[in-house]
Amino acid sequence: MLALKQAISLVTIKNVSSSWNPSDETGLEAWYNNGKRITLNGEKVSAWADSSTNSFDMVQATASEQPLYNGGDILFNAANITHLQSASDITLSGAFTVGIRLEPTASNNAVLGSNNQPNEFFKITSTTNVRFKTDNNQVDLGIDSGTLLADLSLVITRNASNLITLYINGVAQADTETLAGTADINAIGIRNPNNNPYDGTISELQIYDTESTALTANVNTYLSNL
């Protein structure tokens, strides 16, 4: 078995211009920080530790299902069902904000969700559509233009009235939907049961159990500067 070692990134990661930091937010549930707290098994990622105080560490003990590390980017391969998973679920019962820096290379892929419970996920269903599903109910969010198969900052929010809004590269998309329910998350790059594996890179992931105009603006700015 290859020995596990703590990753030391030699690449240069852009500085974020804003003084705001995800850890400033009391609503921070989990933070998978770009190029930080990553454990390597050779060139593969065996763990991406949570940089919040909640210890929702994403791990993968099976070497064949470990994604590759590429200078701050974590490369997932759908053919190998590569994914990372936490021992416990993040639960978002009310308002939330989820921010991701990613570059998908295929659609019909689950970016984030639960690999324990069915029908809990955020998935890119086509080049122009993101699906959020929870408690066996779903909404589809279409983008205004362009394609989701690109280097993107993607933010999804739900407010106190259960209104779901999708932001692409900081721009709120016209298609908004309404969906209540408790979103369960314990996996990156997969959904239950090991379905719709993600293909592409994920560089940063932030999850909050709150939503506000200020938080959305800060997350969008932070992700744009990675």
Describe the structure.
The radius of gyration is 16 Å and the shape is globular. The protein is mainly β and 226 residues long. It has one domain: Jelly Rolls (Sandwich). Strands 2, 6, 7, 9, 14, 15, 16, 17 and 19 form a 9-stranded antiparallel sheet that branches. Strands 8-18-10-11-12-13 form a 6-stranded antiparallel sheet, with no helix packed on it. Strands 1-3-4-5 form a 4-stranded antiparallel sheet, with no helix packed on it. The protein is built from 1 helix and 19 strands. It has one helix spanning 213-224, and strands at residues 5-6, 28-32, 38-41, 44-48, 58-59, 68-70, 73-76, 84-92, 96-104, 109-113, 121-126, 129-134, 137-142, 152-158, 163-168, 171-172, 177-178, 183-188, 200-208. The termini are far apart. β11 (121-126) and β12 form a beta hairpin.
